[in-house]
Every structure is written in structure tokens, then in C-alpha cells.
Amino acid sequence: MANPPLMLLQDIFVTLGSVPLLNGAELGVGAGERICLVGRNGSGKSTLLKIASGELAFDGGTRFLQPGTTMRYLPQEPDLSDFSSTLDYVEAGLGPNDDEYRAKYLLEQLGLTGAEKPENLSGGEARRAALARTLAPSPDLLLLDEPTNHLDLPAIEWLEEELRSLSAGIVLISHDRRLLEKLSRSIVWLDRGVTRRLDRGFAHFEGWRDEVLEQEEQEFHKLGRKIAREEDWLRYGVTARRKRNVKRVADLAALRRAKREHNAQAVQGKMGAADAALSGKLVVVAENVSKSFGGRKIVADLTMRVLRGDRLGIVGPNGAGKSTILKMFMGVEQPDSGRIKLGTNLNVVTLDQQRAALDPAVTLANTLTGGKTDMVVVGETSRHVIGYMKDFLFKPEQARTPVGTLSGGERGRLLLAVALAKPSNLLVLDEPTNDLDLETLDLLQEMLSENPGTILVVSHDRDFLDRVATSTLAYEGQGKWVEYAGGYSDMLAQRGEVAAAVKAKAPRPAALPPTSAVSGPKLTFKQQHELKTLSAEIERLQTQVRDLTAKLAEPGFYGRDAKAFGAASAALAAAEERLAAAEEKWLELEVLREAS
Predict the structure, then answer these.
(1) Residue 422 φ then ψ, to 5°
(2) What is the mean pLDDT of the chain?
């Protein structure tokens, strides 16, 4: 460290039952240092931060805090229950010489008035109040555990700038790659109870981590060869020198334990969603859709379409209406005006950010299997629960762990495992990245990028959207939503181009007609008529496909009348073919209409 430490943890040991969670971990932070603390869910990051804050005891090691240091700690789940309002909660964290106006300023910047009652707060609002309380004293040392969870994009971007302006030492746990890249100057990686430090920014972390793991893998290959040599000696050389070589036998046992532990840690996840039959070409078509709540316009005249294979990211501040759009697209809520048409053969799987589907008293294995067998049904195949757990980075010994004892990230991973076992061709994900560690995020991004189905995702994770989304539906204010090609960064670039064009107000060349640069050929009268009739034809064919699909799914239909079953199958294939052709033609005419 370049600066004398404000806080220093050395040789920290914590054991849970008989299992060591922290095994000689270290953490030191000096004035002005910005450290990101990274590691898998359940590795002990939050535990280490609680020890640093003084809130948690430890089994061994030392903790030093520079006398006179002002330290503030942001927990994952702040408790406001003893306070009458958010302002009372924030002001209670101020010292005698702190500026009380800063408390009001921070609450205002975070979208709160200070009069909110704690019992009425959402998770995001409670997190905003806790952030204000943490930042209000202008502390020397900040310990922040997942500060962006449940925050919307404007709040995350404000927090970035606020933290960058501070001279405090900062230790930050976060899954938000963009935040870590902008803020971090050093990395502490917690892995299997041990910490490693790199004094470079987060952009260098993954390459460094992979080098460390590769070197470790080479060392364990050497260990394997050493075990083989020792086993050979054990078989042929121990008898004559038994007493003299008892220690060598014990050392061999220790080598085997080390090998087993390495193999257990080396398991790589491989998320995958259970595939369903292809949906129709058109998945969702919204035409002049509007929606209001209590006189407030949530969606105003939205027209768009979602095609099979699209990965649509939906972004906007909390309360803008992102979840409402998802519900309308799924037919759960109806628009006030306009209409939404859903495609055929949709098998929808929804991931709810509230995680209400998880029972804290049920074990991890029973949550996946339903408690009846040891097998998980993934699509049309069955897999043993232990193997399926490993795909989602769970250890075999966690099978009998109650869900309520899992970390927030582990619960998020479990919910993904439950959801992705169901056959789907349309994934609806509402804040899927909350609490997930970087390794799980990588697996999720890879799975979504390779998924042949359609994906609708609400997220405040900018890096995640850049890696996954093929288009972004962004809130522009007053109920207006605009779709941009690409991810979050592409959306910002396109917004900037539009703003620059408006600001420049460049005069149009006199030689060109006003619309010649953007207008295409207008639809002929025949094409206009065809476009109108195609909508009705598509609806008729969608109904026919649904009816035939339901008929073929009737139990015993084939046994009762094999000839009728064959006729229905042929009719379904013909209807699906006509529907695909009608959808393709409708899209072609729609593109022409929009360009004209």
C-alpha cells in the first residue's frame, strides 16, 4: 500500500461449523485508496467487510483501525425499523461536527424527501436512504457492500460521480463491472478463504485471475505426480521402515486432501436453458399502446415489434414503467388504448426479481426436484440433482442446505436454476443480475447469448446489457419509449447523435426536398390493403395453430383415431407454414410503411 493504513486486517480466520470460511485473509486500505473486493458468492466477502467494520467477531487474527478515523459501513440489508423517517435515519449517522444540510442534499439527490416512513419503503428506497446515511458524514473510510443493488441507472451514475469526487479510502463489493472499472485502483480477490491483492484497476482483474489459476493448475499437476510417486513408495517401501515413515504416510494423506479440495474448487459451471419448440416469427406486436396509472402517463403511443430471437433490454428509472411493459407484453395487463398481439407457440419462463418462488425452509435439492426424487427434469430429460447443482456453481454438500441460509447471490443462482429447467422459447427476466457474482454473470451472459429463443430483460447493469441485448427500449420521459439498436452504450451513442443533430439545427440543402433524405417509396394502394388484411389473416392462422396444437395434445387422441391424428398433424404443419409466410410478408410491408 502506498499510504499508511486507515484500517488493517491481518491473518483473519473464521470457521463456520467445521468448515473454514476465512483462512488467513488480509485486507488493508489507506487514505484515498479505492479497492474492489471480489470473489464468488459465499466466499466470505460480506463477512470480511463486516469484520473490517467491527460488526462481526472473528476466530483469529488482528484488526487495526487508525485512531480518529471516521468509518462508515453500508450493509446489503439496512435496518431502518427504529426510525420515524428517512431523514431521522440519515441524521442519526452524523457526528457532532457534521453538516446536517448534507443529509438533506444527499436524500434529495437520491430521489427521497426525508419524510418517507421506513415501513413503507421499497428495497431500492431503503438502499438509497442507507447510502445517504453512509455518505453524509464525509467519512475517511467507506466500506460498501453491493451499493448499486436495487438502484436504477440514474442513481448508479450519480453514485459513480459522487464516489469519484471523494478523498476517502473505499472498499467496494459489487457485481457491476462498469462501476468497478471506473472506481477501482486495486483489487483484493478472496478465493477459498485466502486473499490476493493486485494494485491495478478492475479492467486487469480477469486476465490476472486466469494467470493465477493457470499457474495453480500447473502446480496441482505436479502434485498429482508427487502423489503417484508417494503411493508407489507406500505400496513397496513402507513395510521395512514403518515407524520411521509414519510422517510420510500422513503427508501423503494431506496431499490427497489438497488434491480433492482443488478438484472440488475447479468445477466449472455451464448454465443452459431447456429449449422448447420454436415460436412464431412475430413474438410481440405493440400498436399505438398507451397506459396510465392515477392520471400519470406510463406508456404513450408505443408501437414496436419483437421478433423471434430478439434480445430486448428495457431501461429507465425506477417507477418509469419497465415492469408494466413486461406485463403488457405477456398479456398480464391490458393497455388503456392500442393493442398488443402475442405470437404463437410461446413457452414463457419468467424470472421475478422479488424471488417469491423460493421457500426459505426448503432445502436446495428439494427446491430443484420438488422433494419427490433425486432427479431434476430439465426440458424432456432427467438429471441427478447434484450434477445439475454443479452447473450453477453449487457444491454437493450444499444439497441439504435450507434456502434461507444461502447468500443473496446464491439465492439468485438457485432461482435461475429453477427457471432454466423449464422448457422455454421466451425468457422474461426482471433484474436477473441482482446479487450475482462475476463468475455467475459470465455464465448467464454466455447462456443468454447462445439461447435461440427470445429474451426480454429489465436490468440496470450496463455491462450486462452491452453483452446481451440486441436492442434497447429506453425511457425518454412523459411516457415516451424509444427503441435503439444494440446495448446500453449503443443507446447512449445514438441518443448523443440525435441530441447533437437537434442542437446543431443544420439547414437542409436547398437542392433537396425536405423529406428526400429519409423517405422511401410509399406503399401502393394494393400494398396498403394487403397490410390491413394480413393482420386479420395472421390472427386467424394463430388461432388455428393454437387450436390444432391443443387438439394434438389431447391424451389418447392417436390411439382413438390415428388417421384423424395424422390429418391434424398435416393441417398444423400447413397452418404454421402459411403463418410464417404471412408474418414475413407483414414485416416486409411494415418496413416499407415505416420508411415511407
Answers:
(1) -85, 140
(2) 81
